[in-house]
Structures are given as C-alpha cells and as structure tokens.
Amino acid sequence: MVLLRNVDELIQLKSCENIELKEGYLITPDYVNGTSGWQMSQFSEVLEAELLFEDYQTQATRYKLMNGQEITVNSSTSEVPKDAEFTSIFNFNS
C-alpha cells in the first residue's frame, strides 16, 4: 500500500514498469463527500477539467467511485460549472 498526495504521483506510479496498480482509494472529509465524517472510497477513474472564470483559471479533478458516485474537487472556492468538460487522465481498467 502506498499513500499518495496527488494525481500526478498516481500517474507517475502507473508508468513504472515493475509496479501493478490494482485499486485506489480516495480519502475525503465530510465537506467534500457530503456526509457527517471522513470517508475512504474506492475509485475507478480520475478526470480533470480546466475551468475558466472571468478573472482566473483553475483546475478541477473528478473521481468516479466504484459505488457509482462522483466526487469533484477544485483548487478554488468557486462551484464547478455543470457544463465543464472533463477528460480522463487515469483509469484502472486501461
């Protein structure tokens, strides 16, 4: 088991020839996962989107969980627009 801090580390780890990634888990606090406490959820895919606002640009990351839910996080306090176009950057099935 390896604890990673960000998606870049996950992608870098996947590119290692002698390492096989079998599953991944996302640990989130209550204000991200919408529950009353911290959760650890297994995910299958990671997607990213570039968000353009009037006065700045930021990035959002979406995790597709094995239970069918999606968790989206971004580096700003702005809401992620519903029409944001996400691109898959990591998938355990590929």
Can you give a write-up of this model?
This protein has one domain. 13% of the residues lie in helices and 40% in strands. The chain is built from 2 helices and 5 strands, in the order H-E-H-E-E-E-E. Strands 1, 2, 3, 4 and 5 form a 5-stranded antiparallel β-sheet that branches. The longest helix is centred in the N-terminal third of the chain and has 8 residues.
Keywords:
single chain; 94 residues; mainly beta; 5-stranded antiparallel β-sheet; 5 strands; globular
Helix-strand blueprint:
Layout: H1 7-14, E1 24-28, H2 30-33, E2 39-52, E3 57-65, E4 70-74, E5 87-91
Antiparallel strand pairs: 1-2, 2-3, 2-5, 3-4
How can the largest sheet be summarized? Answer: 5 strands, antiparallel
Secondary-structure element string: HEHEEEE
Beta-strand segment tally: 5
Number of domains: 1
Shape: globular
| Count of DSSP H/I helices | 2
Give the oligomeric state: single chain
The structure class reads mainly beta
Mean pLDDT: 90
What gap, in angstroms, lies between the N and C termini?
20 Å
Ranges where pLDDT stays below 50 over 5 or more residues in a row are: none
Radius of gyration: 14 Å
Give the proportion of residues in helices: 10-25%
Strand % is 35-45%
Offer a concise description of the structure.
By secondary structure, this protein is mostly beta strands.
